[in-house]
Amino acid sequence: MSDFDGLRALVTGGASGIGRATAGLLAGRGARVAVLDLDPSAVDEPLYAFRADVTDDVLVRTAVEAAADALGGVDILVNNAGIGAQGTVEDNDDAEWHRVLDVNVLGIVRTTRAALPHLRVSDHAAVVNTCSIAATAGLPQRALYSASKGAVLSLTLAMAADHIREGIRVNCVNPGTVDTPWVGRLLDSAPDPAAERAALRARQPTGRLVTAAEVAAAIAYLAGPHSGATTGTSLAVDGGMQGLRLRPA
Ligand code: NAD
């Protein structure tokens, strides 16, 4: 397929997991793709790689400009870089709240701010934010992470309203539990990772984890030419978790 021919995409957190799958899928469908990541050393050609921390406004601006130069502009911005946090409001101190909100929420603000001048002059401008079912599910032991993704959801709606008249669409995906290196790290920290993985699978309505490729396909739909009338929405990619009102433990 080459439905992204001529389109230029920037993917944050594109060196691993969902972002990596998204960058690869968009490139495979004809887009020119740049990845912005803390550690882009594993990103291969034909993708362009830029090292930046989304918590650093100067680094973000510099990397977005370099990516726009390399790509010849930016039509698609995938704000995917994010980190996790576990616990109740008693478990994370202020510094941890600032750290996670800085990456998950302000990271999107910084990257979008830097990319907007390029998106405004695109004939096909789309932003897709990676949110989470945590934004609305009321997950136990995820107070900080849920609050950060709740902010991503409302930010998506506000950005969609602010930029609709400029021809810029803004949507988000809400993944459930996705089989990425992030989840792998969490499982590996359990006393019996294999048993933990089996239990996690069993808790999914489908009996399996969501794949990064499945989330990438949803991101590509929202970023691509077939969703021109779609803005200000969230698309669940969660194996039925949200629609069936189930809870991952
Ligand atoms: P991952 O850890 O496999 O990949 C995240 C990537 O983001 C890494 O390459 C990392 O280097 C990069 N990154 C992290 N902090 C950064 C920073 N400050 N600046 C630049 N890059 C940074 O994780 P993943 O599972 O692919 O998660 C990607 C996104 O999907 C996150 O926003 C996460 O909240 C969301 N999500 C994941 C799941 C899941 O189950 N894996 C579920 C719902 C939502």
TrEMBL record:
InterPro entries the record matches: NAD(P)-bd_dom_sf, Sc_DH/Rdtase_CS, SDR_DHRS6-like, SDR_fam
PROSITE patterns reported for this sequence: ADH_SHORT
The keyword Oxidoreductase is assigned to this record: yes
EC number: 1.1.1.-
An MF annotation (GO) of this entry: oxidoreductase activity
CDD domains: SDR_c
UniProt keyword annotation of Cytoplasm present: no
Enzyme class: oxidoreductase
Gene3D superfamilies, sorted: NAD(P)-binding Rossmann-like Domain (3.40.50.720)
Coiled-coil ranges per UniProt: none
Keywords per UniProt: Oxidoreductase
PANTHER family per the UniProt record, alphabetical: DIHYDROANTICAPSIN 7-DEHYDROGENASE (PTHR43477)
Assigned protein family: Belongs to the short-chain dehydrogenases/reductases (SDR) family.
Protein name, per record: SDR family NAD(P)-dependent oxidoreductase
